[in-house]
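Thread: quick sanity check before group meeting

JM: Hey all, I'm pulling together slides for Thursday and realized we never actually wrote out the predicted structure for the chain we discussed last week. Dropping the sequence here so it's in one place. If anyone has concerns about the input, flag it before I start.
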Amino acid sequence: MPIKLGIAVALFIASTRAAAAQEMCGDPPIAPVIPSASEIHAKSPAEASAARHGAFAEVRRWQGALKSYRACLTATIATDKRDAEEAVRSDKPDKDKIAKFNEDIAATNHAYDASVDQEEKVVNEFHAAQVAYCARRDVDISTCPKS
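JM (edit): ok, ran it. Output follows.
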């Protein structure tokens, strides 16, 4: 029983740390769904062009939302660091309070890093769709990057 209790406590602590960043900044923006290379190949030229353009617009919109989300995370980290430093400098430093600030900073950094990983994944998916589009011979490749 003590092992199960320990695991439950650890999970609770991890969820509350992640909740600190979520409480301040909300959930990260939902990533757009990017058509796969095979979906781009299966579409008519007009549909493929519209899908690629739509994906581009959605990625740009989502990246704008990510910018705001990350700015909030950065501000949260700065505030927690400042509060932790003040707690350390106080006449009677509260070690538990300082540890909580440090846990919140780590959780917020994790949320930031997760958003960067998600952005990299989405951009790679978009790039694969764009490469598939630009490899077609029946579409207008004037919008494709020059090799």
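AS: nice. The chain is about 80% helix and 0% strand. Residues 34-143 form one domain.
JM: adding both to the slides.
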